[in-house]
Amino acid sequence: MSGDDSFVQRLKRRRFLRMSGALGAGALAGCSNQEELQGDGDGGSETTASSETDSGSSDEGDSGSSEPVDVGVVIPFSGDLSDFGEPMLNALRMAQEDINAAGGPLGRELKLHDEDSETNSTAGVNAANSLINTQNVSSIIGAVSSGVTISIASSVTVPNETLHITSASSSPTISTLDDNDLVFRTRTNDRFVAKVMAQVIQDEGAESAAVLHINNDFGKALANTFEQAYSGTTTAKVGYESGQSSYQQVLSELYADDPEFVALAGYPESGTTILSQWNEEGYGGNWVLHTSLLSDDFLNNVGADVLNGMYGVRTKPPTGDATESFKSDYAEAYPDADLFSPYSWNSYDALVSYALAVHHAGTTDSNQVKQSMRAVSNPEGDGVSYGQFDTGVSKLDSGTDIDYSGPSGNVNYDDNGDVASDMVVVKVEDGSFNDKRTIPADQLI
Fold first, then answer.
1. For residue 244, which phi and psi values (nearest 5 degrees)?
2. Distance of alpha carbon 43 from alpha carbon 405, whole angstroms
3. What pLDDT does residue 73 have?
4. Comparing C-alpha atoms, which of 407, 416, 415 is closest to residue 384?
5. Looking at the domain assignment, is residue 18 inside a domain?
6. Are 189 and 176 spatial neighbours (Cβ–Cβ below 8 Å)?
7. What is the residue range of 73's domain?
8. Fewer C-beta within 10 Å: the chain N or C terminus?
9. Residue 222 in contact with residue 213, Cβ under 8 Å?
10. Which CATH number fits the domain that encloses residue 439?
11. Dist. CA 411–CA 406, nearest whole Å
């Protein structure tokens, strides 16, 4: 355990320095101790920040209970979106450590139980069913694929009246689910992304464009929104299946009417194959890439020379002490891991906002916690930021309203359980994604 002890001491020193102002006023550390990971025998794992090994069942009682608050996590560790699973889980562990270091919601330990969604709706539904009906979790965080998230919500979480937060899924369809206000998300609706993708192509003076999308809820909804927003001619909306070795037929259909631009809504694994084959066959034209493709790994896998000159659209990275502190803490907590994914800070904020809502509600009963989700995260109230779960709890205990915001920025849940973010247009230049301009969220609503 000597390695864990040194890890704990490093992060405790970091927290002390920040709280004393040595690293900037108001910037607080996110971790205070190292988690232990133990298998649960069902292919997933249980993460706890204490040395206790009994998982217990979720208890729907008040703060007098000593049972842990059990949270289920369904994210991809395999399949087309597997790149995002581990960085998201790392961020959830950081949030868990912050929460438990402060005594936990209602004075109870918070435990994570994670399962692999496999980027597959059937696997995701099975995992969520196991977490709720066998492991007795009180809420679910996940998934990444919008199709998987929608399947879990429709088949598992909503019928079981279980609170469900996604920190990555972005399909506009999620906003209109008949979910009894049980589904929330800390990731911006893709309606914003689609509108900006159309605007980028219009600004380039292109009179025709096609949309290539993965054949699921995420891709179909984005393609439809793009077509509605684009003032030029949408020559084709072509869906594709992930995991194919060749996309020649898809590309042939896509370019049948010679579009000047293509908007690509897909995932990294299949996106790499598609753009590599597009380049090899010399189709020409230009592309605008969805947020999910704007990673350094994707850039390196496809090749900077292939992507050079392409545009992309992503949510504006948050700025300020909370964001910088989170990035620094993540790098120190996981020095051997890849850089966090675009959804890591959204995952941190999903868990913290949920834990604060549990404390505010005085119970883990989802039908009561959902009524507290906006109360702890939306204006008006005293600001509570990254690494300040203890401050949030103290204010709530004293009857003070709070407004939580974290490393992902403001966590202001609207009537649909969505958050809104400014969007950034990027361009691949000199081997990197360079920000070109920002479009405020209020221009896209």
1. -85, 150
2. 34
3. 98
4. 407
5. no
6. no
7. 33-187+319-410
8. N
9. yes
10. 3.40.50.2300
11. 7
Q: HSE-up of 192 (CA within 13 Å, CB side)?
A: 26
Q: Which residues contact 137 (CB under 8 A, 6 or more apart)?
A: 58, 70, 71, 72, 113, 131, 162
Sheet holding 382-384, edge to edge: 382-384, 402-406, 409-410
First vs last Cα of the chain: how many Å apart? 51
pLDDT computed for residue 341 by the predictor: 76
Beta bridge partners of 384: 404
Report the residue count for the chain.
445
What is d(CA 89, CA 94) in angstroms, rounded to the nearest whole number?
A: 9
Reading the block at residue 145, the tokens are 């694929």
Contacts of residue 336, Cβ cutoff 8 Å, sequence gap at least 6: none
92 within 8 A of 141, measured Cβ to Cβ: yes
- Bridge-based pairing state of the strands 110-116 and 163-166: unpaired
Please give the structure tokens belonging to residue 319: 């700025």
- Same domain as 195, residue 144: no
Q: Token pair 């399909």 is at which residue?
A: 171
H helices of 171-265, where? 190-203, 217-229, 248-254
**Count of domains forming the chain:** 2
| Residue where the block lists tokens 């001619």 | 233
pLDDT single digits (tens) 332-389? 999 887 656 778 999 999 999 999 999 999 999 999 999 999 999 999 999 999 999 9
**Tokens representing residue 99 in the block:** 């929460």
Two tokens, residue 307 = 């992507």
Q: State pTM to two decimals.
A: 0.78
Region of 175 on the Ramachandran plot (φ > 0 left; ψ -120 to 50 alpha; else beta): alpha
C-alpha separations of 442 from 333, 402, 439 in Å = 36, 24, 9
Spell out where 364-443 has E strands. Answer: 382-384, 402-406, 409-410, 423-429, 432-439
CB 195 within 8 A of CB 164: no
The answer to whether position 25 is within a domain reads: no
Closest CA to 51 of 40, 39, 37: 37
Residues 299 and 438 occupy one common structural domain:
yes
Full DSSP string of 286-355: EEEE-GGG-SHHHHHHH-HHHHTT-EEEEEPPP-SHHHHHHHHHHHHH-TTSPPPPTTHHHHHHHHHHHH
- Calpha distance 165→353 (Å, rounded): 10
Q: What is the pLDDT of residues 75-129, one digit of tens each?
A: 999 998 898 999 999 999 999 999 999 999 999 999 999 999 999 999 999 999 9
Side-chain half-sphere CA neighbours of 285 within 13 A: 25
Q: Which amino acid is at 357?
A: A
